[in-house]
Amino acid sequence: EVQLVESGGGLVQAGGSLRLSCAASGFTFDDYAIGWFAQAPGKEREGVSCISSSDTSTYYEDSVKGRFTISSDNAKNTVDLQMNSLKPEDTAVYYCAAYPLGPDGSTCQPYRPPFGSWGQGTQVTVSS
Fold first, then answer.
1. How many Cβ atoms are within 10 Å of 26's Cβ, its own excluded?
2. Which residues pair with 49 in a beta bridge?
3. How many other C-beta atoms are found inside a 10 Å radius of the C-beta of residue 27?
4. DSSP secondary structure string, the chain?
């Protein structure tokens, strides 16, 4: 069974940092993309960043570029999202998901429907 469990969220003041972690199990970590997605109150879930387990290439949405860093540890089947210089607009429930690699077979774009169900996510709240 494909399972991804998010952790590391919390309440932080604007300008602060958090490190989210995604622990994956039930599938071979290689040859998949892992993405972090955020769902703010009243909004749809949107992609934030992703990483390819094939070539470790990464992708960031413009809104987080330069502030967030995604990394993976294929031996441990974990993907972390280091979030620095947090802003109130980063407040959301953050989810991780595994999905097939892109058409070229190596990159994590475009985002695709995830394997299995969405997890419970982890709440990130940034106060002003």
1. 12
2. 36, 60
3. 16
4. --EEEEE--EEEETT--EEEEEEEESS--TT-EEEEEEE-TTS--EEEEEEETTT--EEE-TTTTTTEEEEEETTTTEEEEEE-S--GGG-EEEEEEEE---TTSS---S--PPSS-----EEEEEE-
| End-to-end Cα distance, the chain | 40
What is the token pair recorded at 32?
A: 């998949």
Q: What is the pLDDT of residue 56?
A: 84
Mean pLDDT by 10 residues, the chain (128 residues): 93 98 85 94 96 90 98 91 98 96 89 88 97
* Residue that is written with structure tokens 């809104």 in the block: 63
CA distance 3 to 84: 27
Q: What is the structure's pLDDT at 117?
A: 84
Angle subtended at Cα 34 by Cα 78 and Cα 86, rounded to the nearest 5 degrees: 80
